[in-house]
Design a protein that fits this description.
Trichothecene_AcTrans; about 210 residues; alpha+beta; 8 helices
């Protein structure tokens, strides 16, 4: 993805660099703290608040930066973070043992909930490759409603269109679902309903323009 400044807007959208890691970690942890799926996966509020100080959480975001998958938005300071991954159907290179060690460090006794979400969402993904996957997008609470999410979305969708790729995501709220629909996404299969009174995730897909 190329760096860009959104026209007619004070919001700057760009790929994160290694120099952003400290700020990105703090912003992302604060931005996802009240997100519905994050709260279900890790209901321990104190543990969730500590995400920004977790070495494992920082390692995850650092890997996304290294892959060029992490896009940020804001002005002088970062206020929004999104993770875009190109999915081509190949086996992941990550060591699964190392991955689960990281996950257990972050989620502790709730690691089974993480596995539940990953398993459920994996079955809902498109079967035709490649495509671009918006894995996560979060904006600091005090900056919501100012267009940062839309700006990051437009940035990623331009990349998808340039490469002729469909874009897939899961919407976790009615508000997010409406936002994605305005950008050309349509429902892709039935909702994913998490157990134990968990939230529902609506898979959505957008074909390239």
């Amino acid at each position: 993805m190329s760096d860009t400044t959104v026209p007619s807007s004070p919001i700057t959208v760009r790929r994160a660099t290694a120099h952003d890691l400290d700020e990105v970690t703090a912003v992302f942890a604060a931005a996802v703290w009240d997100e519905a799926v994050a709260a279900w996966m890790l209901p321990d509020e104190e543990r969730r608040r500590a995400w920004g100080h977790a070495t494992a959480f920082r390692r995850y975001l650092g890997a996304q930066i290294d892959d060029g998958a992490l896009v940020v938005a804001g002005g002088a300071q970062i206020a929004g973070v999104s993770v875009w991954s190109r999915v081509d159907g190949s086996d992941p290179d990550d060591d699964q043992g190392e991955l689960m060690t990281t996950v257990r460090t972050i989620y502790g006794p709730y690691v089974d909930r993480f596995v539940t979400v990953m398993t459920a969402t994996a079955h809902a993904h498109p079967s035709e490759y490649p495509y671009l996957y918006l894995a996560q997008m979060a904006v600091l609470p005090r900056h919501r409603g100012r267009g940062l999410g839309s700006a990051m979305l437009r940035h990623g969708l331009r990349t998808a269109d340039d490469d002729g790729l469909a874009t897939y995501l899961e919407a976790s709220t009615t508000r997010n679902r409406a936002l994605y629909a305005r950008h050309g996404f349509v429902d892709y299969g039935p909702p994913i309903r998490l157990p134990d009174n968990g939230p529902s995730l609506q898979p959505m897909l957008r074909e390239p323009a």
